[in-house]
Design goal:
18 strands, alpha+beta, 282 residues, four-stranded antiparallel β-sheet, Uridine Diphospho-n-acetylenolpyruvylglucosamine Reductase, domain 3, five-stranded antiparallel β-sheet, Uridine Diphospho-n-acetylenolpyruvylglucosamine Reductase, domain 1, Uridine Diphospho-n-acetylenolpyruvylglucosamine Reductase, domain 2
Length: 282
Amino acid sequence: RVGGAADRLVEVQSRDELLAALGLARDAQVPWFVLGNGSDLVVADPGIRSLVIRNRARSVTINGQQLHADAGTPMALLVRRCTAAGLAGLEFGTSIPGTLGGAVWANAGAHDREMRDVVATVEAWDPANGTVTSLDAAACRFDYRESRFKHILEAIVAATLALDRDAPEAIAGRVAENQAQRVATQPLADQNAGSVFRNPPGDHAGRLIEAAGLKGMRSGTASVSTLHANFIVTDRGGRAADVRALGDRIRAEVGARFGIDLAYEIEFVGDWASWSSAVGGA
């Protein structure tokens, strides 16, 4: 809920509409950006100089222990469908507020599980030739909060997940436990973009930030959550620049105190060309 507007915005409701919008952008040589729910994204205050395609395509089919879904499907919806169908393995998805496409793109995870644990194949649109290719999990090059899609210009169209069988009641119990933990530990009532930093090897970003005494630290309209230190919350009408400035201050403080360079998990998108800060920026 911070940041500026896109130059152009189109909302698609189906796979065919998504591919049509991408094809039009390709033919017109217009820069494009596919948006799901916007979690883990901070849009620059000047906005985005491209066509933003809001993907609301959410067709879901289940065949045995495999679930196939459009990239615009909310993770919460997939968790509900899996629970009802007795398909286990995606319970952690209740703590991922985004869409399937965004979760695959970031290899999102929670509760010691990640998307790479369940992804069988991903369908991706290649702007070089305008075709859709099916990629297996190995081709997606998943790593901690990483995938090929962060480094190659492709659009995730759909994905197939390989799951296990279990009683719906047992699955529902695990989903409820995960959701209760999320509610108890994350500032869900406040404006936030999700976990700000990746956890460094063998430690947790939130612990380091709290140990540095940074809970509650403020920069303009943004502050470090007092509930979970790896979340930045903003005031109503807040500025994206304040979020980034505060994030850079946190990185500097943690680096100076512990010698650890925290890597951002949130993505800064849009027109950051004029961005600068005293401790970093790009």
